[in-house]
Design brief:
single chain; mainly beta; 51% strand; 8% helix; six-stranded mixed sheet; 380 residues; six-stranded antiparallel barrel; 2 domains
Length: 380
């Protein structure tokens, strides 16, 4: 079982250089050492890899060899840094940019003139954030390979700076790595949350999200209704209980919200969200938290118009995201979008669209360094 996150970046402008780089990349992947258990790693090498489509692979995490490292281009220092897996608590990946790319070929070898095919493929660029055992966070583009052995099979994950899909697919079709976490490790200065879901009958998964970060982090399920999340940076966190038929949530304001969220400010934000052109043509702001300088919004997005999606007749698409927004130069800009849930129904139906329930007690929980925050989350 294998997932590949990304392709080789910046292969060059000229066609012969691009082909040479692709050939070299293929040779490197095919000649990679076979996965094996690294006995040098301690018992805390167990953890999980979470994909954007909800797939979660748990087990022993290791590299192609005991000398293997994860490389990250540190955006702050403007240089590559290498880290052994033993130095890492977690790696989270956020979407830096997502777009449909027009496929083309070069008119002649060695020339820059392009011939476009009229077809397109999806591409997602990622920004990785690695949390180290020292408590340091390193953000930038990533390169590395890890394996996860769950005791029955071994899954391979290739971490790179971007991912591209096949011609004819959409950005929404791509399943990518969102998080890698060593469950038994805690960063220096990190905290944890233990939460009890009451009234959900064991049918909901629980996620946590800091009000200053775009990352939605899954909490590990224990006995029925009990959840725990380690490796959290100090901050204020909100909870999302997501089941097949409902999303229970609330949002706390970002730290730099500014003045109050007046009706006029809310109207500006809603108007700006509606102006953004993308695949989804319908957008509705379901909940806002923040002020006149920064805000967070839960946005419901839909599309009923015809598209190239051919798996069902006249589908209705829906998607829920949290937008982190800031007002810059008199205009509200979306700094990040965090995926919560998506789905599609045939012939314009809405049977699979979940009910959205705002529960004030799900927001604003403080996590402190070296401490555990306990929370009771009740279904209204």
């Amino acid at each position: 079982m294998s997932w590949r996150f990304g392709t080789n970046a910046n292969a060059g402008r000229r066609a012969h250089a691009r082909r040479a780089a692709m050939l070299l990349a293929a040779v490197l992947v095919l000649s990679a050492p076979a996965p094996r258990t690294c006995s040098a790693e301690s018992a805390d090498s167990r953890g999980f890899v979470q994909l954007s489509d909800g797939t979660r692979v748990e087990g022993e995490i290791f590299g192609p060899s005991e000398e293997s490292t994860i490389r990250i281009f540190d955006a702050a220092l403007k240089k590559f840094r290498e880290f052994r897996l033993a130095e890492i608590v977690s790696i989270s990946l956020a979407v830096e940019k997502a777009a449909m790319i027009d496929k083309f070929t070069f008119k002649e070898l060695g020339w820059d003139e392009k011939i476009f095919s009229g077809k397109s493929f999806p591409r997602i660029d990622f920004l990785a954030t690695a949390t180290l055992t020292t408590g340091e966070k390193v953000a930038g583009h990533i390169l590395g390979v890890v394996y996860v052995d769950d005791g029955r099979s071994t899954a391979k994950f290739v971490l790179e700076r971007y991912m591209r899909g096949e011609v004819g697919r959409k950005v929404e079709d791509l399943a990518y790595v969102k998080e890698l976490c060593f469950a038994g490790r805690t960063a220096a200065g990190g905290g944890a949350v233990s939460a009890t879901l009451k009234g959900f009958d064991g049918k909901a998964g629980l996620y946590v999200m800091c009000n200053s970060s775009p990352l939605l982090l899954p909490a590990a399920a224990g006995k029925e209704g009990e959840f725990r999340r380690d490796c959290l940076a100090p901050g204020t966190y909100d909870f999302f209980a997501v089941s097949d038929d409902a999303i229970h949530f609330s949002l706390s304001p970002p730290p730099d919200a500014g003045g109050p969220m007046t009706e006029a400010v809310a109207a500006e934000i809603k108007a700006r969200v509606g102006e953004i052109e993308e695949f989804f043509t319908g957008k509705e702001v379901l909940h806002l938290a923040g002020g006149d300088k920064a805000a967070r919004a839960l946005v419901r997005k839909t599309r009923t118009e015809k598209s190239t999606y051919d798996r069902m007749k006249d589908p209705r698409f829906h998607r829920f995201e949290v937008y982190s927004m800031k007002k810059t130069g008199g205009m509200w800009l979306v700094e990040s979008r965090t995926f919560i849930r998506r789905g599609a129904d045939p012939e314009g139906g809405s049977a699979s669209e979940p009910k959205v329930v705002m529960v004030p007690s799900f927001a604003g929980h403080l996590v402190e360094a070296g401490k555990e925050t306990r929370v009771l989350l009740e279904k209204p």
